[in-house]
Amino acid sequence: MNAHANLTHQADRADLAAAFRWTARLNMHEAVANHFSLAVNPEGTRFLINPNGRHFSRIKASDLLELDADDAETMNRPDAPDPTAWGLHGSIHRALPHARCLMHVHSIHATVLASLADSRLPAIDQNTAMFFDRQVVDEHYGGMAFEEEGARCAQLLADPKISVMIMGNHGVLVVGRTVAETFNRLYYFERAAETYIRALQTGKPLRVLPDAVAEKTAQEWENYPGFATLHLREMKAILDEEGSTYAA
Q: What pTM did the predictor assign?
């Protein structure tokens, strides 16, 4: 009998594992740090998350922990998660039912943006416009994301319109309703940050979109039929063709 036959949320597990594998392929991971999580109950308090110390490129669906944000004994489990994963993701899932999926990385261009005195991402092209008026900058980094820092970060994401928290002096955290939506945003945010950083490097004036056009474009991204779902589907198809073990 398959040792993983009784695991719950198989489809969600496979989607999340594929996102880990693809993030590593894009070099947006960092050693065995950073975490993705996905709520699996209506209240948003039970969630899947990567196990402590596992490289993104090796994560399988069956590896993912299922945690309860309200369980005070979580860090006493034999398979306890990384304490910063519990501090940040546990705090957000505990406080914000709308934040179904969370993806936190220290990807290069997003972290460069987070290191600038002004970390806001302006709408200078179609991709950056995706995040117009949908980002918040955490300007009060207080150290690693243990529970106190995680609770503070959760407050910054209270508005359901916010899809990205640019974590000043730290990295980025992307929020969505599904793995597909959240990963698509993560992917595009890193590309958008790279475009902006490279544009700054020219030293030339930026062509910033008018607010009305930026908002129109952001809404068009949100309403683009099935785009994020197709993106994830194709990622999984490529992994499947390569014989990847992500879904195991």
A: 0.95
